[in-house]
Amino acid sequence: MVSNATAGLTCPSPMKPTSNGIFQGDDPLQFSLPLAILQICLVVVVTRGLAFILKPLRQPRVIAEIIGGILLGPSALGRSKSYMQAIFPPKSLPVLDTLANLGLLFFLFLAGLELDPKSLRQTGKRALGIALAGISLPFALGIGSSYILKETISKGVNGTAFLVFMGVALSITAFPVLARILAELKLLTTDVGRMAMSAAAVNDVAAWILLALAIALSGTGKSSLVPLWVFLSGCVFVVCAILIVPPIFKWIAQRCHEGEPVKETYICATLAAVLAAGFVTDAIGIHAMFGAFVIGVLIPKDGPFADSLVEKVEDLVSGLFLPLYFVSSGLKTNIATIHGLQSWGLLVLVIFTACFGKIFGTLLVTLLCKASLREALTLGFLMNTKGLVELIVLNIGKDRKVLNDQTFAIMVLMALFTTFITTPIVMAIYKPENRKRMADYKNRKIERKNPNTQLRILTCYHSVRNIPSIINLLEASRGSEKREGLSVYALHLMELSERSSAIIMVHKARKNGLPFWNKSQQSDANHVVVAFEAYRQLSHVSIRSMKAISSMPGMHDDICNTAESNRAAIIILPFHKHQRVDGSLETTRSEFRLVNRKVLEHARCSVGILVDRGLGGTTQVAASNVSYFIMVLFFGGCDDREALAYGVRMAEHPGIRLTVIRFIVETESVGEIVRLNRETASSKLRSSDEEFLAEFKQNMAKDDSIKYEEKLVRNAADAIAVLSELKRCSLFLVGRRPECEAALDLCRSDDCSELGPVGGLLTSPDFSTTASVLIVQQYKSGASPNLTLQMEDESPDKDSI
């Protein structure tokens, strides 16, 4: 069975690049270009499909790519000879391998960009000790297990090279894969996460050095001095690169300014330098990928130049070319070669050796550093993560005849197994609820006994589109000078993806926490941060900008934890739809709707969802030019009281006029049980609404900017008729869960459950308005709000404020 390009006794005839078309009798699959296109499409579909299937298991994409390569190879689909001859014929493999290695070369250039040499110099003694233990013990056990393999299934191989390859394969920790797992599990800012990242960075560099040594030893030269010359030449290349590359790219980086496009000349020169370095290292006899990796490491990470390089290269390389490398590995992996009790026993031995060496070595040193057993175990399993570098080692060993088919298949399955178990085991032994809880605080809502205390707002945004309206809303929320002021935390919500740029952001986040403050100079140059900084200086409002880098399923955790840690009274979220030119609302990303719903469910403070229809226009409005008409629609309930409390604060701004419309349901008796509205006065104790409104009416008598009206309605139709008459308005403030039958009947659609019935009506296409809408949900202690739109009985508020 064909497993690589060299299998077979005769060299197949080369393929022509393009065909004349099927109408002229040519079979496209007999020509290299159309066949390569088909192979790429098949690989992308299979690997992305598997990634989607494994996403609920929170597995890194490298798992899907390894499995996809195995499925497309002789272990599964490749058992059909007609399939192999049609899709992956031997004469097509040189082209496939060339494209795969070209993708690998540029991907490792990106991997070098991810690695910051400055962080290595700052590695502490604990991380260095953990890294050394995580390398030395598995390396020694790998050498030991190689003797067993040599006596059983790997007879006749190059002994020295085989020992080193086995040691390197078992001692590697996949740095990029580990970073994604830590970010996915919210462990980046824990002590375990920081230690794992620092130790893995050291491990990564050591692995490359050991791999270079292994490649040098695996040469086929007759002279015993050849490996020495190869290794010494590689060292000379690295030294020359350190002396020459940084000054050149530092000069280029200084000419690339934030906010301006990087010149095409600089990008082309850099990519050419990567290829040239790859040529030099390949000529030396190491591998072309070493040169690319070294160039990536030595490029300065500060400024927009490195980010621009990643942006230009990553999608094409990671999306199309790199998966070909996994297929190239899969075509060499034949699980059928593992047969018999001996082979499966050796597989178990290799897996046990790899896991024991990494976990026990890391565990021992971590316990000596006085860490807890749970943290030490977690760190051990994290350091046991394998990935692309593992496959690179195995593929080089296979190509150089150091690893035979059976040993190669065993090692690939070992890498797959050890990486697959990392996430579930870490989740089991290091659960989020076991981590330290945040300190409690009182002011978790806007309605409070002392309204003059400081108001803390966490406002979130997806993109630049949200910024003007957010700043205009914050300007309206300032309140009068007699209050203690407004403190704002602006959180940029960014999705953690498999892209290299996301991991670069993760590394930056790791330095200051996740989410992290934008304290660096290059971050201050960001135009979003500049907008908030300008507003801070003009308005004297305390604003701090942050970024949350999370996967969509876990983004609500970052939002809620950030609000908790900064003692926010309210979280303001952008609606998942934005306004189009014609005034209709268009979905930005449906995933953000689920994020909003989860924040409503889990937040331990009040939450507001802003439906933006251009509050104040598309630009920031100066304080002296603010002129808004704000309406609070009051049906009753804690959420409506929260909306009214927010509106009263806004009315203190000299440019804002507030109108409060209270809807009172008239008594109905039509052959049914008489239903009395909860807001009407009765002989019973006055409700929280009545008490709040009484205090509001008393205070509003001193303020000409506030207008209060009462509207009698019998049902939802009457309420809609009243709302349709409200034309002149800049912003509606409404509660999400009004306690009124007439309000509950305004909108019963499931499409607006997170907005509530009133907010759903105001944002529906059937209701004509140009006003923005802020839907507010008040925090209720001791109970998690649910997303069903059922009227609940509410006792007077007992929350401490």
Automatic annotation (TrEMBL):
Domain named Cation/H+ exchanger transmembrane: residues: 50-426
GO cellular component, one term: endomembrane system
Sorted UniProt keywords: Antiport, Ion transport, Membrane, Potassium, Potassium transport, Transmembrane, Transmembrane helix, Transport
Domain Cation/H(+) antiporter C-terminal: 630-780
Cellular location(s): Membrane
GO molecular-function terms, A-Z: antiporter activity
Pfam families associated with the record: CHX17_2nd, CHX17_C, Na_H_Exchanger
Domain Cation/H(+) antiporter central: 485-625
InterPro entries referenced in this protein's UniProt entry, alphabetically: Cation/H_exchanger_TM, CHX17_2nd, CHX17_C, CPA2_transporter, Na+/solute_symporter_sf
Similarity comment: Belongs to the monovalent cation:proton antiporter 2 (CPA2) transporter (TC 2.A.37) family. CHX (TC 2.A.37.4) subfamily.
PANTHER family from the UniProt entry: CATION/H + ANTIPORTER, CATION_H(+) ANTIPORTER 18
Protein's UniProt name: Cation/H+ exchanger domain-containing protein
Organism from which the protein derives: Castanea mollissima
